[in-house]
Amino acid sequence: MEYRWNFLLKFQHVFFLFIFILITYFTENYFLDASNLIWSIILNVLFNIGIYYLVYNYLVPYFYLSNKYPEFILYALICFLVSSLFRILWEPAVFKMDFSKEGYHVSFLYNVYISQGIVILVASFLGITKDKFLIEQDVIELGEEKEQLYLDLLKSKLSPHFLLNTLNNMYANSFTSSEKTSDSILQLSKLLQYIIYDSGKEKINVNQEFSSLKALAALYQLKYNNQLDIVFDIQDQDEFDIVEIPPSLFLTLFENALKHSAIGEEDHSFIKLFCRLEHSELVFKIVNSVGRHRVNSIETGYQGLGNEAIMHILEKFYSGRFEFYSGPEENEHYKIDLKINMNG
Q1: Which of 118, 153, 188 is at the close of a domain?
Q2: What is the torsion angle, in degrees rounded to the nearest 10, for the CA atoms of residue 5, residue 8, residue 10 and residue 11?
Q3: Structural domain contains residue 91
Q4: What is the Cα–Cα distance from 227 to 218, expressed in whole angstroms?
Q5: Residue among 261, 257, 251 at smallest CA distance from 295
Q6: How many domains does the chain have?
Q7: Residue 101 gets which letter from DSSP?
Q8: By three-state DSSP, how is residue 233 classified?
Q9: Is residue 305 part of a domain?
Q10: Torsions phi, psi of 98, nearest 5?
């Protein structure tokens, strides 16, 4: 998995290495001439890269991140003492440092302790924060993946029951010469094309979305011999070739209306759908009847996956730029009113 923090993590190492070289230069130039100073810097950098690597890649992951804090402190302290002692023994012996001036030997000890302490503290801090960064990034990416999987599920939730019944109806009609068979195949083809190709896109134009709604409505009409009261009032159709929305936004609302209106099952059931573009605001409305088995729950509205799905999609793509109402109307009707500001 690629992390967006990778560059920052690598930059921190390089930046600290640069700072450590400066610290070594300004603290040891009192004891060494120019040539010895360069060699001292090189040897100290190589030596402390090893210490840094040990703390960053071993002590932090295996002890601190495993909640073995006493062991981590103990081993970090051992690293500090051993590395400091090593430098105190080998640097004066190798470079024959001049401690003739008063206090220079004390200054040298302070420099060693401070620089080794800085190396271990910085390696520990960066190792711990690296883990926090990566965990945070994992959480973000897993959240995005979960959200995308959730949206994909919503986009593909067209009832397989309905598709199976449609195929059964087509099979039954195929034994007689009927225009219903060819119409069913045509509408089902449009719907499947939408499911397979369009629903996988981030956005499609409004006319493409309405094509799927009309195909779904046509299949219902064929099932009930064109007796259903389904009305589409769609204006500004030329503009709808340009205006884009997330796929399944309107289809989910229309599916809910089909499900809860009892259309085809009860008399006087209906669905009226209206859509237009008003001053860059996309207005989408559905008014439908409510089946008798749904009247008792009309006070709470359709609190199923449908509205939750719509709110999830709207917040993702149009946060702060939409109004959404879903609730009962008079005469035991139900209304869905969606307005989206397309300038954003």
Answers
A1: 153
A2: 170
A3: yes
A4: 11
A5: 261
A6: 2
A7: S
A8: strand
A9: yes
A10: -95, 105
